[in-house]
Every structure is written in C-alpha cells, then in structure tokens.
C-alpha cells in the first residue's frame, strides 16, 4: 500500500524509522528457526528485560537523535507472533523450547 521497501534491513529516515528484531535490543529468536542456533537466549524468559531495555534505549536514541522527531517508528518483529497458538510452522520451535525451559 505505501511501498516502503528498505534495502539491507535498514530504514532510518526523518519521517520513518524501522527497527528489525535482529537490531532491536536483545530480542530473543532462533536463527533460521533452528533450536541449535538461539540468538539472545532464543526465548524471552532467557534474557534480562532490564538489559534488553537498556540496549533498546541506546538504539532508539541513536536512530532518532532528534527529540522533536514527529515521524513514525516501527518495531518489525517477524520471528514470533504475539499469540502463542499462532506460532506454527517454523515458529513452532519456541513451543518445544518453552516447555523444555520449565
């Protein structure tokens, strides 16, 4: 609809800033949905929220240094879906690892 297509997963402009999961704090995920390749612990319960938010704050201030920024900031996280039951297919790796961590 809007044809916003950044190259190389980078989009920092004066009107739109996009943060991808691999460059947003310590977002946990599995590289290529492979349980043997956890990034930042793989699961939310495996990272410190305080550490994650500290990194996020630095990244936001770096990407949007203008305190009067009036554009749009987007957090684009595609490695998981917010509803547990919607994490099917390749995203199912989080199901088994979630139960294994308890």
TrEMBL record:
The keyword Nucleotide-binding does not apply. It catalyses: Random hydrolysis of (1->4)-linkages between N-acetyl-beta-D-glucosamine and D-glucuronate residues in hyaluronate. Pfam families: Glyco_hydro_56. It is an enzyme of class 3 (hydrolase). Keywords: Disulfide bond, Glycosidase, Hydrolase. The keyword Hydrolase applies. This is Hyaluronidase.
């Amino acid at each position: 609809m809007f044809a916003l297509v950044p190259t190389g997963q980078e989009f920092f402009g004066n009107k739109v800033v996009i943060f991808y999961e691999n460059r947003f704090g310590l977002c946990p995920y599995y590289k290529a949905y492979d349980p043997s390749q956890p990034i930042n612990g793989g699961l939310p319960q495996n990272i410190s929220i305080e550490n994650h938010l500290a990194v996020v704050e630095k990244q936001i201030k770096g990407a949007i240094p203008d305190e009067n920024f009036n554009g749009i900031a987007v957090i684009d996280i595609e490695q998981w879906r917010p509803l547990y039951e919607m994490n099917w297919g390749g995203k199912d790796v989080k199901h088994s690892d979630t139960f294994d961590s308890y």
